[in-house]
């Protein structure tokens, strides 16, 4: 597998359909933490999340006959919206399976983008397993949220852009759920800078990949608790390619509490005047927790998404103010 080449190919395929998001220096976090902190603003990407990159690369790689049969996926919200967006670009129908725990604001966004939404199971992994079987029975294309090399390569274009935008990157903090984003970003950046440190960031309430890495094998059905970081929550598909990629490219992992996520989310919005979601705040909170290790170094925080429901946001603001 030549992942850096596949990422470069993905960028040529999707580049005209995505935004090259800003990589903005954060004066606030640089001064607060003593590092040179840069924010990769995927919260400003189409559909409000990096997920559109992987979905586009996968769907644009499908042949005409596959597209005519329609595409199927499962999602906690952001990937579903990305698949709906990508399908609409090529005129294909999309059906998205979500767990009953999925954010209503995110499922409503999927519907607005033209996809059909179906609920199945309480955990996202239940919806994933059902959706994959549903697609196989109907000979429809399944677009995985992370367990697919085309999806990983699409997410890796975030790393390709970072390499163009910054002269020196010492460390990157990335929210870690199924591992698609961190595998792609780590795979590309490590190819151009072997010394870059890739840090996976998860909520303490749902850290299935981190626990699996600690145990040395994938245990995708480990239990999770509810978390503000719904975009990284839940189990991981059996035999996911991202497990070995994470073992190869992730240097260390950090977990954060729900209180830390909430505080970082409010702090970011208050100081940078942009909306972010829980998964993005996980990366910020993890960096703040580890900041002393990175004083004087060039650090990137991937702000992976903006999609947070108003009820959730109101609850966080009320509790933190």
Shape: globular
Q: Uncertain regions: pLDDT < 50 for 5+ in a row?
A: none
Major β-sheet annotation: 6 strands, mixed
What number of structural domains do the residues give? 2
CATH class of the largest domain: Alpha Beta
User: What amount of the residues lies in strands?
Assistant: 5-15%
Question: How large is the radius of gyration?
Answer: 18 Å
Q: Assign a percent range to the helix content.
A: 40-55%
CATH fold-type name of the largest domain: Rossmann fold
Distance between the termini: 49 Å
Count the beta strands: 10
- Arrangement of strands in the largest sheet: 1-2-10-7-8-9
Quote the average pLDDT.
94
The run of helices and strands is HEHEHHEHEHEHEHEHEHHEHHEH
CATH architecture level-2 label of the largest domain: 3-Layer(aba) Sandwich
* Structural class by helix and strand composition: alpha/beta
Helical segment tally? 14
């Amino acid at each position: 597998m030549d992942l850096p080449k596949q990422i470069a190919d993905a960028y040529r395929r999707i580049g005209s359909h995505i935004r090259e998001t800003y990589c903005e220096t954060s004066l606030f976090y640089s001064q607060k933490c003593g590092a040179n902190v840069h924010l990769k603003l995927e919260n400003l990407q189409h559909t409000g999340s990096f997920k559109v990159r992987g979905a586009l690369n996968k769907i644009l790689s499908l042949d005409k006959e596959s597209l005519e049969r329609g595409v199927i996926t499962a999602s906690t919200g952001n990937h579903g919206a990305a698949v709906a967006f990508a399908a609409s670009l090529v005129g294909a129908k999309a059906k998205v399976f979500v767990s009953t725990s999925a954010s209503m604001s995110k499922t409503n966004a999927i519907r607005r983008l033209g996809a059909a939404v179906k609920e199945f199971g309480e955990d996202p992994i239940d919806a994933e397993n059902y959706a994959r079987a549903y697609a196989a029975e109907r000979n429809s294309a399944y677009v995985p949220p992370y367990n697919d090399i085309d999806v990983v390569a699409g997410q890796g274009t975030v790393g390709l852009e970072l390499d163009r935008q910054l002269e020196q990157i010492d460390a990157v903090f990335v929210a870690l759920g199924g591992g698609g984003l961190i595998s792609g970003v780590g795979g590309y950046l490590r190819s151009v800078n072997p010394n870059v440190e890739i840090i996976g960031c998860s909520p303490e309430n749902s850290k299935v990949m981190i626990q699996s890495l600690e145990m040395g094998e994938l245990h995708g059905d480990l239990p999770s608790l509810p978390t503000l970081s719904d975009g990284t929550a839940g189990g991981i598909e059996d035999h996911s390619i991202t497990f070995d990629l994470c073992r190869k490219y992730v240097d260390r992992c950090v977990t954060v509490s729900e209180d830390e996520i909430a505080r970082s989310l409010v702090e970011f919005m208050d100081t940078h005047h942009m909306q972010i979601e829980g998964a993005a705040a996980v990366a910020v909170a993890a960096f703040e927790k580890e900041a002393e290790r990175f004083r004087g170094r060039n650090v990137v925080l991937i702000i992976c998404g903006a999609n947070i429901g108003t009820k959730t946001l109101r609850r966080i603001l009320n509790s933190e103010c």
